[in-house]
Amino acid sequence: MRILILGGTGFVGRHLAAALSKAGHALRVPTRGYARGRDLLVLPTVTLFQADIHDDASLDRLVQGCDAVVNLIGILHGDRGKPYGAAFARAHVTLPQRVAASCRRHGVRRFVHMSALGADSAGPSMYLRSKGDGEAAVRQVWADVQTQAQAQARARAATQPGIQPQSQPAIDPPWTLLRPSVIFGADDNFTNLFARLARRFPVLPLAGAQARLQPVHVQDVAAAIVAVLGTSHAAGKTYELAGPQVYTLEEVASLCARWSGHPRLVCRMPDGLGRLQASMLAMLPGTPLMSPDNLDSLRVDNVASGPMAPELGVVPASMDAVVPGYLGRGLGVYF
Question: Would you say the pTM of this structure is higher than 0.70?
Answer without folding.
Answer: yes
